[in-house]
Amino acid sequence: MINNLASQKLTKTTHALGTRIVLTVMGETDEKVLDDSIALIQLYEQQLTVNAPISEVMAVNNASGKHAVQVSPSTFALIKTAVEQSHQHFGFNALIGPLVKLWKIGFAGANVPNETDISKRLALSNGANVILNDADQSVYLTEPGMELDLGGIAKGYIADRIRDLWRANGVQAGIINLGGNVEFVGTSPKRDNGQWLVGVQAPTKARGEDLLTVLMPAGSAVTSGTYERVLVKNGHRYHHLLSPETGHPLQTHVSGVTIFARDSITCEIETKRLFFAGKPIPGWGEDRDDIYGAAFVYDDDTVDLVIVHHRLKLIE
C-alpha cells in the first residue's frame, strides 16, 4: 500500500506569490485538483497582493484616511487575524509596509533611511488605527499613508486553504511548497508511521546540508531568517526583518527560526514571535495542541531544538 501510494505521484510547478510553487499529490488523484490549487493561489494573490496596483488590500490602502472599503470574507478574515496579532506587539506587524518600502531591503533602491523618515513611518504602524466592521466586512485605515501588508502570513494562509481543498477532494498524501513554506498533507507514503522527514538548514551551508532532521506528523514547517534579503552598506549588513518598535532591522544572533505546527499560518505567526524573542520561550506551545516545536539556528550554526509534548522526533 505504501509503495503503491508513493509510485502514484503528480507534481505541478508554477510561479506565484513572488516565488516558486511546487505542488505534489500522491495516490489516486485527478490532475484537476492541482489545476484547481493553482487557480486558488492565483485568486488569493489577486486579492491580497500589494505588489500590483489593483487588489482588495490595495483598495484598502488607497482609501487610507478617506473611507472604509468592503472586501471579500476571506480577505476580511485574514486582515482581522493580522491586525489582532499586530496588537500583541511580539514582533509581527501587518502595518509596517510603509517602513518596509522606506528601507527597500532586497529590492532596487535599498538604502539606510534617516531617523526622521523612520519615525514618520513608524507612526503609521499603529494597529489601533484600523477599524474592522464585521457587519459589512469592511476595513478602514484611519490615518492617511497607512498600509496593510499581509506578506508575513499570506503564504501560510494560502497553504492551509490548499490543504483544505486537497482533503475535500480525497487526496491521501501530498506536499505543498510555497517557496519554502511547506505543508504536508495526510500520511507520508515513505514511512510505516506516516511521519514526514524535515531538515533544518544552516544559511551558511550548501542546500541539502542539514544541521538537524526531524520527523513530524501532517502539518507545516516554515522558516524565517535574516539571510533571506540583505543590504550591505558601508561594511554593515542589514537584514529585512524590521522591528516595529525601533524601525530598524532587529539586532539578533539568530539567523533563522523554523516552526513546526499543524497549520501553516500558525507557523508564520510563531516564527515572528520566536525570532523576535531571540531564544526559546519557557513554556511556549505547551498549552496548545496545534504546535509541534521549533528550531533556532544561530549565527555560529549552533541549534536549539524545542519539542512540544513529544510531537517531533529528532533523527540522530
TrEMBL record:
An example of a GO molecular function for this protein is: metal ion binding
UniProt catalytic activity? L-threonyl-[protein] + FAD = FMN-L-threonyl-[protein] + AMP + H(+)
Q: Binding of Mg(2+): at which residues?
A: G152
Q: Which Gene3D superfamilies match?
A: ApbE-like domains
Q: What's noted on cofactor binding?
A: Magnesium. Can also use manganese.
Question: In its UniProt entry, what is this protein called?
Answer: FAD:protein FMN transferase
Report keywords, A-Z: FAD, Flavoprotein, Magnesium, Metal-binding, Transferase
* Family, similarity comment: Belongs to the ApbE family.
Q: Give the E.C. number(s).
A: 2.7.1.180
Needed cofactors, names only, are: Mg(2+); Mn(2+)
InterPro entries in alphabetical order: ApbE, ApbE-like_sf
